[in-house]
Design brief:
The chain is α+β, with helices and mostly antiparallel strands and 117 residues long. The chain has helices at residues 25-29, 59-79, 82-85, 88-105, 109-112; strands spanning 4-8, 11-18, 33-36, 41-45. Zinc ion (ZN) is lined by residues 69, 73, 88, 91.
Length: 117
Amino acid sequence: MEDFKIYVFGREYEVCFRSEEEYAKFVKSEANGLAELYDGKLYLNKTALSETDMTYANFDGFVRKVLMHEIWHAIFFELGIREYYQDERLVDILAHKTPQILEVFNDKRIMEVKSVK
Ligand SMILES: [Zn+2]
């Protein structure tokens, strides 16, 4: 997968796919992803996230969840809420539920709600 850029509240973040050889921090942290928030980089571990015979059935979904996890770190970082952007449990719960959260807000009736005159 190619690297790409996303924007979190207007700040550019680069989504970087790196192997453990290319990005040694993966080995020490044993992480599938790492958010370098001050550098604006969200790293995904290409070595750990390569599909094998032993990976989950919906492995693409798992890889997307890892990316969403790193994006939630960036969201809380941009909001300036340190205790949340360092809260792995909160970030992981939100990453797990991101598709369902988007589903809630994709109901266009929400944006059509108006005051009653
Ligand atoms: Zn994390």
